[in-house]
Write a structure and sequence with these properties.
Layout (H helix, E strand, L loop, with lengths): L9 H5 L9 E2 L10 H16 L8 H15 L6 E4 L2 H11 L7 E5 L8 H4 L7 E5 L9 H7 L4 E7 L11 H10 L3 E5 L18 E4 L12 E5 L43 H17 L1 H21 L3 E2 L11 E5 L4 H10 L2 E2 L1 E3 L2 E5 L6 H19 L3 H4 L1
Parallel strand pairs: 1-11, 3-4, 3-5, 5-6, 6-7
Antiparallel strand pairs: 2-8, 7-8, 9-10, 10-13, 12-13
Helix pairs in contact: 2-8, 3-8, 9-11
Length: 393
Amino acid sequence: MTASEKAPDWDTIRKLFPATNDFVYLDGANKGALPKCVGEATQDWLRIVYDKAGIGAFSMDEIERTRNAVATTFGASPECIALVKNTSEGINILAQGIGLKPGENVILSRGEHENNTFPWRHLEGRGVEVRWVEEDKNYIYPLEAYEKLIDSNTRVVTVAWVTYGVGYRADLRALAELCHSRDALLFVDGVQGVGILNERIDDLGVDALSAGGHKAMFSLAGAGFLYVRKEIISQIDPPYAAKFSFTSNDRMKEKVKLAADAHRFEYGNPNYLGTFVQRRGCEFIKSIGLNHIEDRVKELSTFLIESALQRGYKIRTPRGWHQRAGIVSMDMGKDAQVIADSLAEQKIRVSCKDSHLRATVHFYNNEDDIVRYLDILGTVQLAFRSPYSHLKR
């Protein structure tokens, strides 16, 4: 029986996350809680620097090992994986490199994160049109809304796999089929889905996907990846280039040629420490199994939604698992930020996003976390309703 077939001991795994000792940590959509293996990997890398004068710590062989680990863990060919700093760097490479012309358009939803918005808005100054998909009454972005906006001038549709606010999961396969039937490309902000959903990236039908490592991949900020489908790599002209972007490092070669694989999107010295930790995070995820991770996140997020509904809270996140992941958004009215701040004072970590309260569960959480979160939330609300609440703040 392989590790991915065994039923994980979630209580034991939880103990690998020091933050869970003192906090109810439900803020993984912001920054993921980190397991002990991150600190161990950091110390291992520093030990190589100290004890071996850096031999091995600054090795491109180690970078390739990380590339292979990312590809194996999340389902893609290594030649399609570029190691980049974060989601927004990957999206900027795509936005600048695909060669959008005046009069062409890009379609994105109102639910996109700033870092999947501004790279495209920046192109408006060059005559590229940005078209917006509006959310429906259920806070989702249906396929038909994209279909109405696509025309012969649409080059790119860009979408979050899971929206950062309400937590809506896009049907990437259906979107990819729509885009390709209209000769458009589908680019994805994958940061809220990678490491949680048990899907091979190269089986989603998308043309490119970018994800930072600091949420569900248990890496450090500054270490993520960009996946580009093999058939379109040559269509993307990198906006910058340096050593490692080309087939040869001979700078005096008569004719230089960009790498035919995803190396073309990398340049100069990589984040050696970050990628070393990134590999350890991939190994940690693989040891648990994405199948088990998704099942646990589904179980806990369902428990949170059902428990919150029983207490009378308004849930904005879709109910069906196929339309969500680990994010659960609640409408708390105008007090959402103040409530989030009050919860933080009692070591309950959640976020206020788009004026709503956002909790994010992961496998290091448990049912007790969720019950405590909702109990304290109820207490905080009562304090706000009290005629003497102004004296308590």
